[in-house]
Amino acid sequence: MRTTPKGFRLHIGIFGRRNVGKSSLLNAMTRQNVSIVSDVAGTTTDPVEKPMELLPVGPVLFIDTAGIDDVGALGELRVQRTRQVFDRTDVGIIVAEAAAWSEFEEMILTELTGRAIPTIIVFNKIDLGSPAQSLLERFKALKLPTVETVASQGRGVLDLRAALIRIAPDEFINSPTIIGDLIPPGELVVLVVPIDLEAPKGRLILPQVQAIRDVLDVDSYCMVVKERELRDALDRLKRPPALVVTDSQGFLKVVGDTPRNVPLTSFSILFARYKGDLSELVRGALAIDELRPGDKVLMAEACSHHPIADDIGRVKIPRWLTQYVGGQMEFSSTQGHDFPDDISPYRLIVHCGSCMWNRREMLSRMLRCRQAGVPITNYGLAIAYSLGIFERALAPFPSAMEAYRQALAARAKGPATTD
Questions:
Q1: What is the pLDDT of residue 195?
Q2: Region for 285 from its dihedrals, namely left if φ exceeds 0, alpha if ψ lies in -120 to 50, beta otherwise
Q3: What's the pLDDT tens digit per position in 152-187?
Q4: In sequence order, which residues have a C-beta less than 8 Å from that of residue 142 and are 6 or more positions away?
Q5: How many domains does the chain contain in total?
Q6: Are 14 and 121 in contact (CB under 8 A)?
Q7: Structural domain span for residue 312
Q8: Which alpha helices (DSSP H) does 258-378 contain, by range?
Q9: Beta-carbon neighbour count of residue 252 at 10 Å?
Q10: Fewest CB within 10 angstroms: 89, 163, 266, 336, which?
Q11: CATH number of the domain that residue 225 is part of
Q12: Which phi and psi angles does 121 have, rounded to 5°?
């Protein structure tokens, strides 16, 4: 389980003021000295991550954050890092001293509940005091579980583990499928995997490996080929495959070599559905038609890597979009958890498949775009749209195709008018 990617883990964020015992609680939960514990407030500077196994939920990632009430220039940086953790938190733990619930804890609670994040209240250091009965009754009425602990002694830790298991979102116990619902059992899927300069040496990238496993999980089987061998591979089959999935960069050749009656899509589009909201990202792709020369477009990558000469996010997609628009635009890029505070100047945000993230963080980023009125789409969708093969790539997803048709119909009607 130690090698389970972060994107598969339930992200549990631990929040609270400085020196309330967050790090002690994490150490007690993991039975390891993961975080430095000190009587000096503000010892934790950056979020500390600890992966572990929490049955029956499965692999989880605890994130111990810096105190959100920190002050000064360095404190502001710590608070900013802590706020980024909200975006990827699946379950929140608010730690407060037993007799000290303040506006800081209330602010964290408002942030978590406003994002519909399941939350547990932990009153720590109950050997020094007790939470007010009125506060406990309020949380009970709000259906917020509370746990009382003395983290430095390990007291209450088992109660907290039990509360985490009860509150964990169902999808972490009954995981959604990447591709399995698109193919009947016993059918063949062809996976087109380019081996180019961006391919990691000696292995496949994570979405390709996950797709293979997902096919096997539904009692189907797959054939893996490079794009130039696809046509010959299809000719050798006795019957057509149930689905062809390609790396988005090979879309044009794969579309040309795949018979029209064979469903086709890309790994990136599969992950647009698996990690985000495919219908919303489809609607975002239509904003490509509204782009004009000089517009600002943000290319967002979930992970950090050294770009190569023909990088997909920095070179290829900007080139395809520029050709589609017919003029030069202003492209910028972000990596990892970094994201501009103000995204309003951008006419479009094009995001990677976020295979290394949990779904919560991608949905949080999409929510920010929706609130700012900035359309967001995905690498694979942007490529398919700019190359004129959008409907072919969406055909395996009926609900997304319907969202696309509805968006087209709404655009054709134009803005509502009043007499």
A1: 80
A2: alpha
A3: 898 999 899 889 988 888 776 666 789 999 999 999
A4: none
A5: 2
A6: no
A7: 180-419
A8: 267-275, 278-285, 317-325, 359-372
A9: 15
A10: 336
A11: 3.40.50.11420
A12: -95, 125
